[in-house]
Amino acid sequence: MAKIVVYGDPVLEKKAERVDVFDEELTRFIADMHKTMIKAQGVGLAAPQVGVSKQICIVDLSVGENPDELHILINPEIVEADGAQKGEEGCLSFPEIVTVVERPNHVIVRAQNLAGDPFEIEAEGFLARAFCHEIDHLNGVLFTERVSSLKRNMIKKKVSKRVKAGTWE
């Protein structure tokens, strides 16, 4: 299993590279990402969160309970977004930190599958939120950028205290 990198690692704040090779290595990497995400009890994970700057993310709202709910998005982009929803969001790269974030309520995402074939998927509600969160990671945007500067500073102070205490990992 891969190790999840936490806030402070530069890979989290840079735009990931497109995937051009669709092979067994990619399939194995994504399977490893899924195991890592399930062990961490997350509903989504982006490749930069495991230290790999590639345009790959997965979302599984069932956290491994239902194989049909695993969404693999390679080179994804949001092509349509509308509506609005506010809700609590956490991030595996920000352990134990949760804050309210506003996201679109409905999105259409264009991506590629494991074979490199393009497809579009439509999502609403929590699934749309998860897609937006993970695709943000691929663009080097953290969920803390989606909140007010006051909230962002509060989160940074919490992180700083934990770094000083040696509990940020």
UniProtKB/TrEMBL annotation:
<dbReference type="GO" id="GO:0042586">
    <property type="term" value="F:peptide deformylase activity"/>
</dbReference>
<dbReference type="GO" id="GO:0046872">
    <property type="term" value="F:metal ion binding"/>
</dbReference>
<feature type="binding site">
    <location>
        <position position="133"/>
    </location>
    <ligand>
        <name>Fe cation</name>
    </ligand>
</feature>
<comment type="similarity">
    <text>Belongs to the polypeptide deformylase family.</text>
</comment>
<keyword id="KW-0648">Protein biosynthesis</keyword>
<comment type="function">
    <text>Removes the formyl group from the N-terminal Met of newly synthesized proteins. Requires at least a dipeptide for an efficient rate of reaction. N-terminal L-methionine is a prerequisite for activity but the enzyme has broad specificity at other positions.</text>
</comment>
<feature type="binding site">
    <location>
        <position position="137"/>
    </location>
    <ligand>
        <name>Fe cation</name>
    </ligand>
</feature>
<dbReference type="Pfam" id="PF01327">
    <property type="entry name" value="Pep_deformylase"/>
</dbReference>
<protein>
    <recommendedName>
        <fullName>Peptide deformylase</fullName>
        <ecNumber>3.5.1.88</ecNumber>
    </recommendedName>
</protein>
<keyword id="KW-0378">Hydrolase</keyword>
<dbReference type="InterPro" id="IPR036821">
    <property type="entry name" value="Peptide_deformylase_sf"/>
</dbReference>
<dbReference type="GO" id="GO:0006412">
    <property type="term" value="P:translation"/>
</dbReference>
<dbReference type="InterPro" id="IPR023635">
    <property type="entry name" value="Peptide_deformylase"/>
</dbReference>
<keyword id="KW-0479">Metal-binding</keyword>
<feature type="binding site">
    <location>
        <position position="91"/>
    </location>
    <ligand>
        <name>Fe cation</name>
    </ligand>
</feature>
<keyword id="KW-0408">Iron</keyword>
<feature type="active site">
    <location>
        <position position="134"/>
    </location>
</feature>
